[in-house]
């Protein structure tokens, strides 16, 4: 055998060994890379879920705080309003984002006007049904303003509707 044939055989054997090692390496690495991708996807989805849980718990704490504030003030009508809004939003698959304490306007000594600012999130058809049930069933409430906004959550890449609802209620002032 001369050197030319030996060099060719050595090159062919080297290429075959290199291909065999590459194939063996890919058998071990590819399943691990797929597993890594799935674990990263699960990690991202868990991070989003964690953020949503924190947001909902913060909203729940705020609503409980507002309910306790309203209860401690002794105004039964405010508590009834919050319970009514909460009951109707649950019945129509809506979420209460914000329920702020009332703005009080006293035009005279006998009556005061209470304006509540409520932000509700949900589907448009459910919002319309919610508004209809308020107007039809509850005479102690008067809807002053409705503002619906389309909002975007860029992290989750989702669109949703928020409705700012200003509800007014007349109340007789209590004289001491």
Give the total of beta strands: 5
SSE order, one letter for each helix or strand: HHEEEHEE
Low-confidence stretches: none
Report the principal-axis shape: rod-shaped
Structural class: alpha+beta
Distance between the termini: 120 Å
Number of helices: 3
- Percent of sequence in beta strands: 25-35%
Q: How much is the radius of gyration in Å?
A: 32 Å
- The CATH homologous superfamily name of the largest domain equals Ribosomal protein S6/Translation elongation factor EF1B
Q: Given this structure, which CATH class of the largest domain is correct? A: Alpha Beta
Biggest sheet descriptor: 5 strands, antiparallel
CATH architecture of the largest domain: 2-Layer Sandwich
CATH fold type of the largest domain: Alpha-Beta Plaits
Q: What is the helix content?
A: 55-70%
**Total separate domains:** 2
Averaged pLDDT:
81
């Amino acid at each position: 055998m001369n050197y030319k044939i030996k060099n060719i055989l050595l090159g062919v054997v080297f290429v075959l060994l290199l291909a065999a090692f590459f194939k063996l390496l890919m058998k071990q690495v590819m399943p691990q890379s797929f597993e890594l991708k799935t674990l990263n996807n699960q990690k991202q989805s868990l991070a989003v879920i964690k953020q949503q849980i924190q947001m909902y718990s913060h909203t729940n704490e705020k609503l409980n705080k507002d309910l306790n504030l309203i209860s401690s003030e002794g105004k039964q009508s405010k508590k009834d309003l919050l319970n009514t809004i909460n009951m109707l939003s649950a019945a129509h698959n809506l979420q209460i984002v914000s329920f702020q304490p009332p703005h009080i306007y006293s035009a005279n000594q006998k009556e005061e006007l209470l304006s509540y600012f409520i932000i509700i999130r949900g589907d448009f058809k459910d919002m319309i049904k919610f508004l209809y049930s308020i107007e039809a069933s509850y005479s102690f409430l008067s809807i002053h303003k409705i503002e619906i906004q389309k909002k975007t959550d860029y992290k989750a890449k989702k669109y949703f509707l928020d409705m700012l609802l200003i509800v007014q209620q007349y109340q007789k002032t209590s004289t001491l």
